[in-house]
């Protein structure tokens, strides 16, 4: 039973990794909008795996390492591929090398976080997490038609250095799961709705499965916490 419980959060982490891999394939095939949406779905899955592991009390070193490997693909490599095609492809080999800096900085940031995880506070991160950096970069590429190209280039450079900086970034880990999940759900829902309405393309089929499941999960946690509060009052 313990093995099965431990496999649940790992399944979410591996699904996150799959989203990153599929995003790269979509981008390579010229479908940048779906590639970006897959990164956003990866963010949704990434927000769940750690909390599920803590809820089931199955945190492990393997889970942490697996999460880092998934993050470097979904929020490091995939956004870098997107920004390369959108902004840096015209520069040839130089553009490839510059785009490659993003996963390099992201990998360094993850390695530093992993070795200092036991010393870190739950209230803040040191440096911008790769998940946030990759998500911001992806959103910028998705609204590429509305902003100057220089904005993406400047943001790309800034995010690279912010990831390895010592700046304290507030953590959302201390926010109760229902509130945190609601924030993420509404945010991603609005972004995906805008993308869908402005330039319709066929979405990856599992987006219709992933988002309802995520909303159902958050709803379940909300109702569970509500019942626990009522039991304490009684």
Automatic annotation (TrEMBL):
**Broad class of where this protein is predominantly found:** membrane
* Topological type in the membrane: Multi-pass membrane protein
What catalytic activity does the UniProt entry give for this protein?
Answer: a CDP-1,2-diacyl-sn-glycerol + L-serine = a 1,2-diacyl-sn-glycero-3-phospho-L-serine + CMP + H(+)
The residues the entry assigns to the signal sequence are none
Keywords associated with the record: Lipid biosynthesis, Lipid metabolism, Membrane, Phospholipid biosynthesis, Phospholipid metabolism, Transferase, Transmembrane, Transmembrane helix
Membrane spanning residue stretches: 7-26, 93-111, 123-140, 146-165, 177-197, 203-223
Q: Does Metal-binding count among this protein's keywords?
A: no
Q: Which GO terms describe its molecular function?
A: CDP-diacylglycerol-serine O-phosphatidyltransferase activity
Q: What biological-process GO terms show up in the record? A: phospholipid biosynthetic process
- List cellular component terms (GO): endomembrane system; membrane
The Swiss-Prot or TrEMBL record describes its family as follows: Belongs to the CDP-alcohol phosphatidyltransferase class-I family.
NCBIfam families recorded: pssA (TIGR00473)
What is the name attached to this protein's record? CDP-diacylglycerol--serine O-phosphatidyltransferase
* Organism annotation: Peribacillus psychrosaccharolyticus (Bacillus psychrosaccharolyticus)
Protein's gene: pssA
């Amino acid at each position: 039973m313990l093995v099965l419980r431990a496999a649940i959060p790992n399944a979410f982490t591996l699904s996150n990794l799959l989203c990153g891999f599929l995003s790269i394939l979509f981008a390579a095939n010229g479908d940048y909008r779906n590639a970006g949406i897959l990164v956003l779905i990866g963010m949704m899955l990434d927000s769940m795996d750690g909390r599920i592991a803590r809820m089931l009390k199955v945190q492990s070193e393997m889970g942490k390492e697996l999460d880092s490997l998934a993050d470097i693909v979904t929020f490091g490599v995939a956004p870098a591929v997107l920004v390369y095609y959108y902004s840096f492809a015209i520069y040839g080999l130089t553009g490839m090398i510059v785009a490659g800096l993003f996963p390099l900085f992201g990998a360094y940031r993850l390695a530093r976080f992993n070795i200092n995880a036991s010393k870190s506070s739950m209230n803040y991160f040191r440096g911008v997490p790769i998940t946030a950096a990759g998500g911001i970069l992806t959103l910028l590429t998705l609204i590429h038609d509305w902003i100057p190209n220089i904005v993406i280039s400047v943001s790309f450079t800034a995010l690279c250095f912010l990831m390895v900086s010592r700046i304290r970034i507030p953590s959302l880990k201390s926010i109760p799961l229902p509130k945190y999940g609601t924030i993420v759900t509404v945010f991603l829902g609005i972004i995906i709705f805008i993308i869908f309405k402005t330039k319709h393309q066929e979405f990856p089929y599992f987006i219709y499965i992933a988002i309802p499941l995520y909303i159902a999960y958050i709803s379940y946690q909300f109702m569970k916490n509500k019942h626990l509060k009522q039991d304490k009052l009684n």
